[in-house]
Amino acid sequence: MDVDFGMSPAVEVLDFISNTATRVKAIATNFNGATNAARADSVYYLDEGLRLKGTSPDTGFATGMDMNYNHTFAPSGSCPPTSPVCGGSGSPNDRVIFVARSDANIDVFDTFHAIQIGTISTRDPIIGPLRVAKDASGNQLLFGITSRGVVMVSLPAFTNPLPAPPRR
Question: Within a domain: residue 98?
Answer without folding.
Answer: yes
